[in-house]
Write a structure and sequence with these properties.
This protein has helices at 12-29, 134-146, 150-157, 161-186, 190-262, 336-344, 348-360, and strands spanning 33-36, 51-55, 73-75, 78-79, 82-83, 90-92, 102-105, 111-116, 119-122, 267-273, 276-281, 284-288, 291-296, 298-303, 308-312, 320-322, 325-326, 329-330, 375-377. It is an alpha+beta fold and 379 residues long. The chain has a five-stranded mixed beta sheet, covered by helices on one side. A four-stranded antiparallel beta sheet has the order 10-11-14-15, with helices on one face. The chain has a three-stranded antiparallel beta sheet with strand order 12-13-19, with no helix packed on it. The longest helix is centred in the middle third of the chain and has 73 residues, at 190-262.
Length: 379
């Protein structure tokens, strides 16, 4: 839904450019989007009813401008690596108006959007841009801000947060394709803009060069970030590939490990359940202060991510499965890191032996509940 406040001339054609994008985002997100473009550049925040997009507007005047009708501005020669026409380089200065919200910045540190709850304020003259640039700049502004509204969108639509993130990722991917199309159509490369400078002649070149230099700087920064991101992605892919190969090789080794586990005297059975290895023990006894206590039989779940759960199957004391285990959650203390390391190396026998030793060892200084709650075995 587009609501354009009166007083801003020449917006009817631009509204037609905005509508398809807003409808796409509203349908994908599951919330209506209301748009305001006041001639005064002042648009108070709205609450309820969906998302509210305020174009080239502030929620109010900074206090030092409150006595004047003027709205503070500054020069922004480029937005999202696009050089702007000289008459559209003005951007609104937010001051402290978003102290209870969030400001979003471009690569040069200029605030290009502000957020107050479900209100998004576009601080540059989006509607003054060429019609060909409006879709890409609107999409990139929405993508920049919507990532901070994941929780709000989840509560508003009833979707899980990761479902909202998937939707935002799909919209961002579509934005990338639109941006690439515009780059090809407009000749975003510095060579093309340099050609435009030469065609403009010495008189016009001075006006175009600042925007050109800004675009080149921002493009270099963006390329640097993309290189760093792709390098990290390549490293993660290589590590994941090595892990998968190890996992494939470990399938045969796991069969051998299970046979070895069944050979441990304290182990009576072993099961594999999706993401974990379940080890069932025989009756476990422990000795504390020269006295033997019968703790019972246990089920030890060793998850493939390193988590451990220990359940007493025969002799729990209320919520306590063991003097050091409450509600199946063991306090592993110093051996926790060793368990993680052994699991990551698929050393199941060593992991089980370490945890069995943990069950047989009770430290009075660190227990959750005293050992006398378990039966003392008298010989």
């Amino acid at each position: 839904m587009v609501h354009v406040q009166p007083g801003k001339t020449g917006q009817a054609p631009v509204s037609g450019v905005l509508d398809p994008i807003l409808e796409e985002y509203a349908e994908a997100l599951g919330v209506p989007i209301h748009v305001y473009a006041p001639a005064s550049h002042l648009s108070p925040p709205q609450w309820g009813g969906g998302l509210h997009l305020h174009i080239f507007a502030l929620p109010g005047r900074p206090h030092w401008f409150s006595l004047w009708p003027a709205t503070p501005t500054h020069e922004m020669p480029a937005v999202f690596s696009w050089a702007l026409a000289p008459d559209t380089t003005k951007a609104l200065a937010p001051g402290g108006l978003f102290s209870h919200g969030v400001l979003k910045y471009n690569q040069r540190g200029h605030a290009i959007a502000g957020m107050l709850g479900e209100n998004i304020y576009v601080l540059f003259d989006l509607l003054g841009h060429a019609d060909e640039l409006v879709p890409a700049n609107l999409r990139r502004t929405l993508d920049l801000c919507l990532g901070g509204l994941t929780e709000w969108l989840s509560l508003r639509t009833g979707r899980l947060p990761h479902q909202v993130e998937v939707t935002l990722h799909r919209l961002s991917h579509a934005t990338t394709l639109v941006t690439l199309d515009h780059s090809a159509a407009w000749g975003e490369s510095p060579g093309m803009q340099d050609l435009q400078c030469r065609k403009a002649g010495p008189a016009g070149e001075g006006d175009l060069l600042p925007g050109l230099m800004t675009v080149v700087e921002e493009n270099l920064k963006e390329l640097s970030r993309q290189m760093a991101s792709q390098t990290r992605l390549l490293k993660n892919c290589r590590e994941r590939s090595r892990t998968l190969k190890k996992a494939e090789q470990s399938e045969e080794a796991l069969v051998r490990e299970i046979d070895a586990l069944l050979g441990i005297p304290e182990v009576c059975d072993v099961e594999i359940l999706g993401d974990r290895l379940c080890v069932f023990t025989n009756t476990v006894d422990t000795v504390v202060a020269g006295k033997r206590y019968r703790l019972g039989r246990f089920r030890v779940d060793i998850c493939f991510n390193g988590d451990v759960a220990i359940k007493n199957l025969t002799r729990p004391h209320g919520y306590y499965d063991h003097p050091h285990v409450w509600c199946a959650k063991p306090c592993l203390g110093n051996i926790g890191q060793n368990v993680m390391k052994l699991v990551s190396e698929f050393q199941w026998v060593a992991t089980a032996e370490l945890l069995l030793e943990y069950l047989k060892t009770v430290n009075p200084k660190e227990w959750y509940t005293p050992i006398h709650h378990w039966e003392e075995v008298r010989s």
